[in-house]
Request: fold
Amino acid sequence: MRIVLIGSGGRDHALALKLAGNSALEKLFVIPGNSGTRQIAWNIPISIDDHDKILSFCMEHDINLVIVGPEKPLTDGLADKLREGGLRVFGPSKNAARIEGEKSFAKRIMKEYKIPTAGFEIFDKENYEEAINYLHKISYPTVIKADGIAAGKGVIIAETFDDAREALKECFINCSFGSAGDKVVIEEFMSGQEASIFAITDGKDFLLLPAAQDHKRIFDEDRGRNTGGMGAYAPTPFVSDSDYDLIADKVIEPLLKGLREEGAPFIGCLYCGLMMTDEGPKVVEFNCRFGDPETQVVMPLLDGDFIELLNSSASGRINKKAVRYNGGASVCVVASSKGYPGKYEKGFEICGLENLPESTKVYFAGIREENGKLFTDGGRVLNITSFTEKNDLREAKRIAYEALKKISFEGMHYRLDISDKALK
Ligand code: AMP
Ligand code: GLY
Reply:
């Protein structure tokens, strides 16, 4: 197999490493990749926005399979362009990627196909007054969401009517989220433990991978601002065996059917963000791709042939037996730059990545390499990921934090409580 992987984050490094260990692989190119993927694959410096160049590269290099990591190229239609060029692609069409790109679309399908999710109403910019009237009628807290992709910032939990009115103003009057905020979803607040689950699918049939739990806030005990993700662990005990069945039957199956009936069959990794409520699992959001940092902890838990799983899905007939859960546990802790998710400085040397224990991996996110040295180059810098053969989260946590002690850069920050909810 000659494979192209699109992406440059910690998730994409984790995917690259999983692919690189497969005996079916002849050559792996990563577009554009990072200094971590450079150690295991061929980085190709093409912008992920340059769809024409990506297509030509794939044609010239006889690529058998393209795997798309981030949402942006998918919502922009890269998978369609590559398929039109005759390539096999693991990743949804632009139309199917709307499940992440347009929250109102996702909510409408969930309503139509009776998929459990928070109750909601949708309002356009033109219906500002109507939206305010609605805010008078509902109970609090409530959740206000910008319809489009707003770099993880478009979700506001409003404790009171005043907070909610401010949030609406941010979207409709101050246009803080650009056109992503021209439409908003106002939805019921749900409480419970959150879980993320990936469904690998050929559009019809699917395989659920072990569920993970993300840690979105910057500080311990879920305090402070939302980030791109400060750590994750898997499997999460908050999803029981019967929950997996429920999620398959009540969420994934009807959603895939809905998307097919909309003329938008979904081929790729459907990310399902769930709230495990007293009434059972309810959908918080869908994403059209592998999650970050959940992928970092799910990959070490898969035995078997991951390339076969993705390739069979992309060709329309998933081989669900290609991979299986290996019975282990994994914890990923993100080390970030001081100041992130606000302003931060970069360019600090990273030390201590040599001689880490065998049961850890370091995935690169915001890292630049110069003359053999590594420097910070982003908000989220690196992901330390540990894994244990048995499902022993406590041990996996211990190993991850032991490894972190050896690593340093100026201003390094990380949470100390990744996986604690599961351990309590
Ligand atoms: P999203 O971008 O949709 O994943 O939302 C970001 C975060 O906001 C989620 O991970 C939840 O913690 C929270 N959230 C979103 N929707 C709800 C909801 N309806 N009830 C409670 N929390 C929510
Ligand atoms: N971990 C959340 C996401 O990938 O969107």
In short: The CA atoms of residues 80 and 93 lie 5 Å apart. The two ends are 44 Å apart (CA to CA). The pocket of glycine (ligand 2) is lined by residues 214, 229, 287, 291-292, 294 (CB under 6 Å). The chain is about 30% helix and 30% strand.
